[in-house]
Amino acid sequence: MSTAAAPKPPMSAAQRWVLILTSASAFMIALDGTIVTTALTTIKKSLGSSVEALEWTVSAYILTFAVLMLTGSALGDRFGRRRLFVAGLGLFTASSAACGLSTTVGELITARAVQGAGAAVIMPLAVAQLGAAFPPQERGRAMGLSAGIIGLATAGGPFVGGVVAQGLAWQWLFWVNVPVGLLVIVGVLFNVSETHGPQARLDLVGVLLTTGGVLGLVWALVRGNDVGWTSPETLGSLAAGVVLVVVFVLWERRTAAPMVPMRFFGSRAFSAGNFASFTLTAGMYGLLFFLAQYYQQVLHCGPFGAGTRMMPFTATLLVFGPLSGRLSDRFGERNLIVGGLVLTALGLAVIAAQAGPDASWPAMIPALVVTGTGISTAIPPVQKAVVGAVRPQEIGQASGVFSMLRQFGALFGTAVSVAVFAGAGSYADVKSFSDGFSAAMGVGAVVAGVGAVVALLLPARRGVGAVGADAVGIGAVGAGAPAGAVSPTVVAATVTTAGE
Asked: pLDDT for 316-344, tens place per residue?
């Protein structure tokens, strides 16, 4: 007990630089994922594009981001995380400038797709470098600070987009990334040391299989609401994605240097943590997609007013993220993750009940605060549980899976909420929009609730002395066993200590 209560040592200069630089880069990535949502109308008028084409300014970014994350993580492990991190930052910064210079919607969509590719390299390597820089007993504090910043960027994107779209030119949504990106590149080159993953060679077959499989699944999610969930395009891409993912799993179980060791999933901390992150992100993105629209369509706010009214939700992310990270170092992850998802489900359910043509924004504030508190409470410990379930040199691989599944959660949450909205309401009038919004938030509450139930499978914390036990257990698998094999003895030990 006395060990658990001992004060944490101060961060070293190297740790501070890693935290600052990875958080700054992740902030840019998260912000660009949602910043254009409240500026779409302005961009549409400026470029004279159709609504269907304009949607791809969001979808193209998400598509390449989700598809290439595992590949970005694998390349970083093989050729150096710092080297690939800098390359990703350079690609993201250059494509941001290209977005700002775009004069047609086609140019903007292309630049956004390249932006997503850069983000796919940056995000998993940011998580990997942050996890590698801090020992397990200090990781929660660092990830809490980082998660608070990332969560604020994700939820604050619509607000910033509204301010820029209404007060400046929409091009500034992207130009702001250029000086920040260049400063982060210089900072990384001078203050972050190089690290590698455990692989001696790149799993090229795994790269091709996972890229094709994720592309098929993501394409189905992105296109399903536009062309129909039973259309040949949607069903065909979904089937192709599933087949390639199955082949990928079979290949990874047999290859000597797997891109994603399947033994990771023998850990309850890794599997349940990733599922909890998936549902948490799904609920959050479903809310983010419609909340600003609800304020504009039903409460008749402008972009700036809509963004301002989201602040009760976004402010909690800056406060509770760092606090939750510190608490997870002392008390473990499970209770915080379960509690956060329960609060998220409760908040979304209340929002669904309150939404209506005559709804009052002040009356919604408590539900927004509860939802934001739940999300920001769960983010740091769920990330810590996943990366803490593997050996330090395998953090890059684990963070690639975590980042990809989190992005899948965003796509799934958005796609499901849009489908439910279309089934229960429409944009025809205030009443129809309110009905659709309420139904979408109700489904988001159910998704978060399912995540809370699954999060109960996370191992309970047994004490600071157990930190890293899960990583040792997982690392032992395969020492004398075939690739992908999972020893029952190791799994039995793993599931009692994972996430510590």
From this structure: 777 776 677 677 767 778 888 999 999 99
